[in-house]
Specification:
Number of helices of chain B: 17
CATH architecture of chain B: Alpha-Beta Barrel
Oligomer: heterodimer
Helix content of chain B: 40-55%
CATH superfamily of chain B: Metal-dependent hydrolases
Strand order of the largest sheet of chain B: 3-4-5-6-7-8-9-10
CATH architecture of chain A: 3-layer Sandwich
Radius of gyration of chain B: 21 Å
Largest sheet of chain A: 6 strands, antiparallel
CATH topology of chain A: Rieske Iron-sulfur Protein
Distance between the termini of chain A: 9 Å
Number of strands of chain B: 10
CATH class of chain B: Alpha Beta
Helix content of chain A: under 10%
Structural class of chain B: alpha/beta
Structural class of chain A: mainly beta
CATH class of chain A: Mainly Beta
Strand content of chain B: 5-15%
Strand content of chain A: over 45%
Chain lengths: 123, 402
C-alpha cells in the first residue's frame, strides 16, 4: 500500500503553484496545481539527477509557421506547461512528466488525492 | 529575487540562493557512489573573472589602458554573442548575484568553488576564466597582452594562494607570440600553476614558427598545453546560424578541430613529443570523426605531411581530452566506441565545466556501464594526477597511481 504524505491545504495553492515535500530522508516530491489539476513528480531529473521540481514552470515554446511555410516567430503555448530542471534546462510536460525533447525519458510520477481541504501524495 | 517565467504576470520568487543547497542531489550522488574515497580532479572548472574586473584592472600597468578599462570595462570583453542560461531556465545564472559568501579574506571565487567541489566530491580543480575565453577575438592585440598579464598577476596573487585545491594555467596572449613567450616564462613556475592555456576562438595558426620558442619552453617545464574552446557567434561562418544551440554545438567544437588539424598536419607532435596536449570543452564525438577523416586523406596525401611517422589517429590517441560536454547518446555503444578511439582509460580527463549551463557531474563518468572501477578512477582523477604531476598527499596520503 502506498505511503500517504500530507502536502498541505488545497487553499494554500494558487494556480501554477507548487510545494516540495520530503519523501523519506534523501528525496523529495514536487506537488503542482496547474490548470486546476494536481500533479506530483519526484524531485530528481533523469538526466543527471538535478532537482527538477526546484526550477521554473514554463509554457511550451512553439514556432509560428504561416500557410506558405514561412517562419513568423515564436510564441508561448500556455496549454502545455513544462517543469524545467534548473541544473541543465531539461523540460518535462506537466501532464505526464515526459521529457519534451525525448519522451523516452520522464520524471517519476506520483498520484495526488485531495480529501476535503487536505492534499495528499501517494508515494 | 524575481525570476521571470513565460507568464509575464507571475514570476518565481526566490529569497536566497546557495550553491550547496542547489547541489543537494549531487551530494547524494557523491555519498551513494563513495566518491570521497578516491581523488577526483576537475580538469575544466570556471570562475567569472569579469565579476572581479576592478580587482584585475588594478594590475594593468599601462596607464592609458588602465584608465580606459576603469572608464569602460567593456573594452576587455569580446562580443561572442549568445545566451547561455536558456532564457533564465538555468537558475544559477541570475541567482548567483544574491549568493552570499563570508568576508574572511578568502576570495569569493574560491568560496563558491569549494561549495560545488565539496557537493560533487571533487578534490581539486583547474580554474579557467569565462569572459576571457573570447579575448583572442578583439582587434587590439595590446589589450589582450595587458589583460592577460593583469589576470595572471591577480590569479597568482589573489586567487590561487587562497586554497591549494584550486589550480590555474598561464593565460597565453596568443595573438602576440612574443608576449605569449614572455608571460609563459614569467608565470610558468608560479605556485598553483599547472599548465599553459590557449583560448581557441582566435584566428592564428598554431604552427607559425613564431610559437616554437614558447612550445620549447613549455616542453622544458613538462607541463601540459591546453586548448580551451569556445564559441563566437560573430564568426562569419557561425553568423549564418540563427539559434544559439547551433552556434554553441558547432563553435565549441570547430575551433579545436582547426587547431588540432594544424597541430597534426604540421607534425608538432613529432617536434614536441613531450608536451602533453589537452583539448578542452569540445566534447568527445568530434575526435573519431576527425581521426577517420585525417587518416583517410593521409593515406592518399602523405607527401603533404612528411613529418608524420604514423597515422593522424595515432597521434590523436596520444593526446588528452577533457570529458565535458560529454555527448550522452541513448545508445551507449556509440560512446563506448568513442572511448575506445581516444584511449579513454589513459587519455581522458573528467571535467565538470561548472558553473556553466552544460556542466557534467562526476556521475556521468562513474555510472558508465562499460567502464571498470580502475578506468573510472583514472578518468575521474588518476590521469590528471599523472599529467599535471599533482601532489594529492594532503587529501589522500596513501594514494598510489593505478
Amino acid at each position: 500500500m502506498a505511503k500517504e504524505i500530507l502536502v498541505g491545504k488545497a487553499s494554500d495553492f494558487k494556480e501554477g503553484g507548487k510545494k516540495i515535500v520530503p519523501n523519506g530522508k534523501t528525496s523529495e516530491i514536487g506537488v503542482y496545481l496547474v490548470h486546476g489539476n494536481w500533479y506530483a513528480y519526484a524531485n530528481l531529473c533523469p538526466h543527471q539527477g538535478g532537482p527538477a521540481c526546484e526550477g521554473l514552470l514554463m509554457a511550451k515554446v512553439e514556432e509560428v509557421i504561416a500557410e506558405d511555410k514561412t517562419y513568423q516567430g515564436m510564441r508561448f503555448n500556455h496549454d502545455e506547461m513544462h517543469i524545467v530542471c534548473p541544473w541543465h534546462g531539461w523540460e518535462f510536460d506537466i501532464a505526464d512528466g515526459q521529457a519534451v525533447a525525448d519522451r523516452k525519458w520522464s520524471l517519476r510520477k506520483f498520484e495526488v488525492e485531495v480529501r476535503g481541504e487536505d492534499v495528499y501524495v501517494l508515494a | 529575487m524575481e525570476l521571470p517565467t513565460s507568464d509575464r504576470y507571475q514570476a518565481m520568487s526566490v529569497d536566497s540562493f546557495d550553491t550547496t543547497t542547489l547541489l543537494t542531489n549531487a551530494a547524494r550522488q557523491r555519498d551513494a557512489r563513495k566518491l570521497n574515497e578516491f581523488p577526483i580532479f576537475d580538469a575544466d572548472a570556471h570562475h567569472y573573472e569579469s565579476e572581479s574586473i576592478s580587482e584585475i584592472i588594478k594590475y594593468i600597468d599601462d596607464d592609458v589602458l588602465n584608465h580606459l578599462a576603469r572608464a569602460n570595462p567593456g573594452i576587455l570583453s569580446a562580443g561572442r554573442g549568445g545566451y547561455q542560461p536558456v532564457g533564465g531556465r538555468i537558475t544559477r545564472y541570475p541567482l548567483r548575484k544574491i549568493e552570499e559568501t563570508p568576508s574572511d579574506g578568502t576570495h569569493r571565487d574560491v568560496h563558491l568553488s569549494r561549495r560545488w567541489m565539496d557537493a560533487m566530491g571533487i578534490d581539486y580543480i583547474s580554474l579557467f576564466p569565462t569572459g576571457m575565453l573570447g579575448i583572442g577575438l578583439i582587434p587590439q592585440v595590446e589589450v589582450e597582452v595587458q589583460y592577460a598579464r593583469a589576470y595572471m598577476r591577480w590569479l597568482t596573487e589573489e586567487i590561487l594562494p587562497c586554497d591549494p585545491r584550486v589550480k590555474g594555467y598561464v593565460f597565453l596572449p596568443f595573438n602576440s607570440p612574443e608576449a605569449a613567450y614572455e608571460i609563459a616564462t614569467e608565470f610558468g613556475d608560479k605556485e598553483g600553476i599547472i599548465g599553459f592555456l590557449v583560448t581557441s576562438p582566435r584566428y592564428k595558426p598554431v604552427h607559425d614558427n613564431a610559437y616554437m620558442k614558447t612550445y620549447s619552453y613549455i616542453e622544458e617545464t613538462g607541463k601540459p598545453l591546453v586548448f580551451h574552446s569556445g564559441l563566437n557567434w560573430n564568426d562569419p561562418l557561425m553568423s549564418v546560424t540563427n539559434r544559439f544551440i547551433a552556434a554553441h554545438a558547432l563553435g565549441f567544437t570547430l575551433y579545436n578541430v582547426i587547431h588540432m588539424c594544424n597541430w597534426i598536419c604540421n607534425a608538432l607532435n613529432e617536434r614536441f613529443p613531450k608536451i602533453p596536449v589537452v583539448w578542452t570543452e569540445s566534447g568527445l564525438a568530434w575526435v573519431p570523426w576527425l581521426a577517420q577523416r585525417l587518416d583517410n586523406d593521409y593515406k592518399m596525401r602523405s607527401s603533404e605531411i612528411p613529418g608524420l611517422k604514423k597515422l593522424p589517429s595515432e597521434y590523436m590517441g596520444d593526446m588528452f581530452y577533457t570529458s565535458q560536454p560529454m555527448e550522452m547518446p541513448n545508445d551507449l555503444s556509440f560512446l563506448e566506441s568513442t572511448f575506445k578511439m581516444i584511449n579513454a582509460e589513459t587519455q581522458l580527463l573528467y571535467a565538470s565545466d561548472y558553473p556553466h549551463w552544460d556542466a557534467d557531474m562526476p556521475s556521468t563518468i562513474y555510472d558508465l556501464p562499460f567502464l571498470d572501477e580502475k578506468a573510472k578512477r583514472n578518468i575521474l582523477g588518476g590521469n590528471a594526477i599523472k599529467i599535471f604531476d599533482l601532489d594529492v598527499s594532503d587529501r589522500y596520503p596513501n594514494y598510489k597511481a593505478a
